[in-house]
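Researcher: I'd like a candidate sequence for this fold, 572 residues long. If you have to choose between options at a position, lean toward the conservative one.
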């Protein structure tokens, strides 16, 4: 008997409810391929927690996989904080079953004697991070699958500082979860320990976003014309109110995308990284001649921004560009306020643009670089408490975090910051896009590109693994005519100089990421996704820019260079 069939048969026992047993029996009888996909592995924690397709099975998001994760976390919390009234906060997004799953998770915590603060309705993910700190909780959970397709859901775990779990807690929680049988999950709620929360936290969170995302010196907020879309997600409950509180009153919401809906009916994917997701918003912007378009993903932790280019056309900024604009603006504001004294830092990740480091260096601000994921930037803040102040940080995947009031990427305060940059530029006769080009003039013109190669199922995981093996065992030594001088292998924790043939240790937690860096500053990173069946290749090239008027020419040259590299590496 196949291993997956043995695992599936266990789900026909009395431990599982009738609906689940019926679903599994039907698959055993009619669809062995689907059965194999659901049981060939257990749902795992990746860079974003646990995320997957909903349905019965060990490799699916359901009552039992969520229950087991929550029981394991409950056990770990009880061991870690003995003799304490433990508290957790739980939030959920607009996805199918998110509210139902959130209640199941609350039930399990309460059954284990843990006090639960459960949001009354959908809320942005960053509000959960905020609530964990504000309510002095020991942990937090949000039920979300970010921008994944409608059939997905997920479970993100936060620690008591409001940041997502990192070592050693993550591994220990996983060990605790893996040691459990499904029969050990306590599903019988103690309703006395579940407290419904909402408006009180909302107002404090929104006020904190306004405080951290705006500046007294910004003029003409009422003259900035904004188009905003929530892409059927949770941001509709927070962003319009935050904009109003900050003094932005010329805000136009894309009505067709206003209502939260887990089917995301007006978009192929609710991902603000993709121009198609923001097309309704940019069309509206052209119709009313708006200055800026902002769209957030379903759980409101990432944002896409479109602004007018030099020809007046709407142009979608990528995550690296947004991060550089925000970092540059924040550091400038800290400098104007006389708050820079050499004890500040900004954060970024290994697959993001090196331009952030160049910007920080110009101001004498330290730049720290972590693994992909805001949990690592949150860890930077925790590690630096009492010695360094955190200004802001981001990564290429369209997320940003301002200051320390939330320890996760936050599209509410970031939306305000984007509008501050645009309003400030407009009041000076400039534009947000011109401000970006000026950053390139002051530093270097960086151009980034991302390719994601999808490989589904059991075979896909093996193919992705083999691609990484090949890149390690047969390293590229030259890219587009420039010699590779460094190979960063974050799984081996080594930085190899191919020219001098020397090896240094990397003091960053291990991760399956490989980065090539050439003499001319080209950077290529390969990274299998922790939450989706894909491998991502990140390309970064740069060149000096002498003036804004030459930007288009230099950008074309850099785009051409990236395409040459993609062809050379046989990735097209």
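Model: Candidate sequence:
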């Amino acid at each position: 008997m196949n291993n997956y069939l043995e695992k599936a048969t266990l789900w026909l026992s009395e431990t599982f409810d009738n609906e689940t047993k019926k679903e599994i029996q039907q698959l055993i009888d009619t669809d062995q391929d689907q059965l194999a996909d659901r049981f060939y592995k257990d749902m795992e924690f990746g860079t974003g927690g646990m995320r997957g397709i909903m349905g019965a099975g060990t490799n699916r998001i359901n009552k039992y996989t969520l229950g087991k994760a929550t029981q394991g976390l409950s056990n770990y919390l009880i061991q870690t904080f003995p003799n304490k009234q433990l508290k957790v906060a739980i939030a959920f997004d607009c996805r199918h079953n998110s509210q139902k799953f959130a209640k199941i998770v609350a039930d399990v915590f309460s059954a284990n004697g843990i006090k639960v603060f459960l949001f009354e309705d959908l809320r942005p993910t960053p509000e959960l991070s905020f609530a964990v700190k504000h309510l002095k909780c020991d942990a937090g959970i949000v039920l979300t699958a970010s921008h994944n397709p409608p059939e997905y859901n997920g479970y993100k775990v936060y620690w008591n500082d409001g940041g997502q779990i990192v070592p050693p807690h993550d591994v220990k929680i996983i060990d605790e979860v893996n040691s459990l049988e499904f029969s050990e999950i306590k599903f019988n709620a103690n309703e006395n320990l579940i407290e419904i929360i909402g408006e009180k936290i909302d107002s404090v969170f929104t006020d904190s976003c306004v405080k951290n995302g705006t500046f007294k010196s910004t003029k003409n907020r009422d003259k900035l014309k904004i188009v905003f879309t929530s892409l059927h997600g949770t941001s509709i409950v927070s962003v319009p109110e935050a904009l109003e509180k900050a003094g932005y009153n010329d805000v136009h919401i894309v009505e067709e995308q206003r209502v939260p809906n887990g089917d995301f009916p007006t978009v192929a994917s609710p991902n603000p990284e993709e121009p198609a997701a923001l097309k309704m918003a940019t069309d509206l912007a052209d119709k009313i001649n708006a200055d800026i378009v902002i769209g957030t993903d379903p759980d409101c932790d990432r944002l896409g921004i479109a602004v007018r280019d030099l020809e007046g056309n709407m142009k979608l900024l990528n995550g690296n560009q947004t991060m550089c604009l925000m970092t540059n603006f924040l550091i400038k504001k800290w400098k104007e306020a006389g708050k820079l004294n050499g004890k500040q830092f900004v954060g970024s990740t290994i697959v993001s643009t090196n331009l952030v480091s160049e910007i920080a260096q110009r101001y004498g601000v330290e730049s720290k670089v972590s693994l992909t994921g805001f949990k690592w930037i949150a860890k930077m803040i925790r590690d630096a408490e009492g010695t360094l102040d955190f200004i802001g940080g981001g990564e290429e995947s369209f997320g940003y975090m301002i200051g320390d009031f939330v320890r996760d990427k936050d599209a509410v305060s970031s939306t305000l910051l984007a509008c501050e940059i645009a309003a400030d530029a407009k009041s000076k006769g400039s534009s947000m896009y011109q401000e970006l080009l000026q950053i390139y003039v002051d530093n270097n013109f960086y151009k980034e590109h991302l390719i994601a190669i999808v490989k589904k199922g059991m075979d896909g995981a093996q193919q992705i693994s083999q691609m990484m093996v090949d890149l390690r065992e047969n390293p590229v030594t030259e890219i587009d005519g420039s010699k590779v001088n460094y190979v960063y292998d974050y799984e081996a924790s080594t930085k190899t100089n191919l020219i001098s043939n020397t090896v240094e240790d990397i003091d960053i937690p291990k991760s399956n990421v490989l980065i090539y860096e050439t003499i001319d500053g080209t950077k290529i990173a390969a990274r299998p996704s922790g939450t989706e069946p894909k491998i991502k290749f990140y390309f970064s090239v740069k060149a000096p820019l002498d003036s804004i008027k030459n930007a288009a020419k230099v950008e074309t040259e850099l785009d051409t260079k990236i395409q040459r590299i993609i062809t050379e590496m046989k990735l097209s």
